[in-house]
Write a structure and sequence with these properties.
- With about 240 residues, the protein is α+β, with helices and mostly antiparallel strands.
- The chain folds into two domains: about 130 residues, no CATH class; about 80 residues.
- It has a four-stranded antiparallel beta sheet.
- Helix 5 packs across helix 6 and helix 5 crosses helix 7.
Length: about 240
């Protein structure tokens, strides 16, 4: 099984260590055992799922979707149909504005790419103007689309998707033990126990476990929504998120 990502985090631990010191009375060097806080590097790996694991994830998603529907939560398809019957999730004016913005954004990005392909320094100011226009337009579009996202995030599909993301996080997160073997970081004999271990570590407000869970969640989450992502893509995402 290949790796999606791997990283090392130092863990502070109290250990009994041997320390050499000079005896002031005898002048001889002697070895004593002291309790010292030492930092030990711990390696974590996010494994790439095998075909079998991916198939299990699809079954898991279907089960979670079915459970959500039985609880009375509507699916995205049902919601789309409902809004279509009522004239759409967006108002007519919002729909027109969104289409207009999409066309304008496409034109601006095409112009920017064209200027970027040339080495004409005289176009530098225009490129800077385009960057500002593109950024502003994207923010405006996000504001329009957020009304849709806030509705869709409560559907059965969204709930099943979140549960599947968590399932991947638990199953793909590995830690390298003292023998150099990769073992499950979330402990338990089955998924339910491993999930409980995840929540216990997640709920720690600070410290080693909290730091590891946070980083693993970012990595698996990014991969889940962009499965062609490279290590460099994930590095950049984590760096931007931490800033």
């Amino acid at each position: 099984m290949e790796n999606i990502y791997e990283f090392t985090i130092e863990k502070s631990e109290k250990k009994r260590v041997e320390v050499e010191r000079k005896n002031k009375k005898t002048g001889e060097v002697e070895t004593v055992v002291q309790n010292k806080t030492v930092k030990t590097p711990v390696k974590f790996v996010v494994k790439k799922p095998t075909r079998r694991l991916a198939d299990e994830a699809e079954v898991f998603y279907s089960i979670q979707l079915s459970k959500a529907i039985k609880m009375g939560i509507v699916t995205k398809a049902m919601l789309v149909k409902k809004y279509a019957d009522n004239g759409g999730a967006l108002s007519e004016e919002e729909s027109r504005e969104l289409l207009k913005s999409l066309k304008k954004l496409n034109d601006l990005e095409n112009e920017y790419q064209l200027l970027s392909s040339t080495k004409d320094d005289s176009q530098k100011s225009r490129k800077e103007e385009l960057e500002i226009e593109i950024s502003t337009l994207k923010r405006e579009m996000i504001n329009i689309e957020s009304s849709l996202q806030s509705v869709y995030q409560h559907t059965a599909d969204a709930k099943a998707e979140k549960e599947t993301l968590l399932w991947y996080l638990v199953n793909l997160s590995k830690i390298e033990n003292e023998k150099g073997e990769l073992v499950n970081w979330f402990e338990g004999i089955d998924y339910e126990e491993q999930l409980e271990d995840f929540y216990q570590k997640y709920e720690e407000e600070e410290g080693f476990n909290s730091e590891v869970v946070s980083k693993l969640s970012k990595i698996v989450g990014y991969w889940f929504y962009a499965q062609s992502a490279t290590k460099e893509n994930i590095d950049e995402f984590i760096k931007e998120d931490e800033q």
